Amino acid sequence: MTATDLTPSTPPAPTRGAAPHRRRNLAAMVVIAGAVVFLLVKGISGSLNFYETVNEALKQQASLGTSTFRLEGVVKPGSIVATATGASFTLVQGNNHIDVVNTGTPPQLFQGNIPVVVSGHFASKQSSTFVSSQILVKHSSTYIADHPDRVKAQNGTVR
Amino acid sequence: MKRHRLTITGWAAAVTLIATAILGILVTPQDVTQKEYSRFLYLHPPMAWVAYLAFGVAALSSVLYLWPRTRREAFDHLALASVEAGVLFTGLVLVTGSMWAEPVWGTYWVWDARLTATALMFVLFLGYLAFRRTGGTKQNIARRSAIVALVSFIDVPIVHFSVLWWNTLHQGPSVLTPGLSAQGVHGSMAWTMLLSFVAFTLLFCWMVGRRTALERLRASAGGSELQEAIAARRAEGTSVEVGA
After folding, report:
1. Closest Cα of chain B to A60: distance in Å?
2. Burial group, residue B75, by CB count within 10 angstroms (0-12, 13-18, 19+)
3. Are B116 and A138 an interchain contact pair (Cβ–Cβ within 8 Å)?
């Protein structure tokens, strides 16, 4: 090496890890793009509406037939009957109702007078009985304090 | 002065978080239907609010960075800090939501519009963070990231309004309702929930303040290190010449 040679004796290797780094970034982007596509497909294929209400299901019963869909309604108080394979109960919406026969253990919060979503199908094209294999509890955004002095007003609301 | 404000914010966040925990666990009554599980009310919705806030701040900062008249490196730092906090809180929203859903709904997860859009929001902003690690100059990365943040932000209102636009298993909003009220939540439960919103907002401000300061230091340190390296290299060449 001459005295005026400014070239470093050990050449730096800044590009040594660059290629794997780029590959890693590319792999991360591919994974994320794949995840986005998967979620979009899931969202669209699952349809944006997660369930049909009792009124909607009765209105569309001819076209729904015995195909599988999710049904939402409020459990009629006093309608729950334990069966050997699960429970049967009635879902209501306004004046309409659908009887549900469910197979499987209901969720722990399952009870009368709460909205639920059941997954299954009508027993037949003309039947008003819905055969369900899953119950999901749909709780509202109302939170009422649970205490022993709670009273029910004449209009049915709790205070 | 700024550092002083940040310290006060940190302490305020700590105090309000502790107060929320005490009120939420020991003082407030349980819900008549959900029983003890209703205490997730003081954890899950405020985290979701902070996620919205974080991505909102990131989107606004990105606009200010992209607009030539307002372009400052500080806006890029703020967007990065906000997205990092937003991704963290969205991840926590998904975890706490699943923990709440299993005993109450009867399942950890469903592909309804709210949950799917939230998962998409998480992945989109995770993509923003991955995008920042791709090559290019600092300015190019900042500009491209700002565009990614704005595109990703489209999903945020979809997440919030999904429960109003479509039939979802997820309940409707408790506080961020069209009338901005918490009338569905009774008594001390409502006040504790609103306190939790304040507490998590303060925590977010503190986190973003600290992270932005760190990014500013890193940027300035990166610049000075480069200058020092150039000076050292020049000095090395000069000393060899003198020695010759």
Report:
1. 16
2. buried
3. no
Query: Which of the 8 DSSP states describes residue B133?
Result: T
Angle at the Cα of B42 (from B39 to B45), degrees rounded to 5? 115
Using N-to-C axis directions, what is the helix angle for B113-131 and B155-165, rounded to 10°? 180
Residues of chain A with pLDDT under 50: 1-2, 159
Closest CA to A97 of A67, A125, A72, A63: A72
Asked if residue B12 has pLDDT above 70, the reply is yes
| CATH code, residues B2-28+35-243 | 1.20.120
Nearest to A138 by CA among A84, A81, A93, A83: A93
Sign of CA dihedral B219, B220, B223, B224: negative
Q: Which two tokens stand for residue A20?
A: 């794997």
How much is the pTM? Answer: 0.81
Taking CB atoms and an 8 Å cutoff, what residues of chain A touch B184?
140-143
CATH of domain A52-137: 2.40.50.140
Residues B193/B10, Cβ–Cβ less than 8 Å? no
Residues of chain B in contact with residue A142, where contact means CB-CB under 8 angstroms, are 184-185
State how far the Cα of B142 lies from the Cα of B128, in Å rounded to an integer.
11
* B 19-38 residues with CB < 8 A to A: 28-35, 38
Distance CA B234, CA B227 (A): 11
pLDDT class of B81 with cuts at 50, 70, 90:
very high
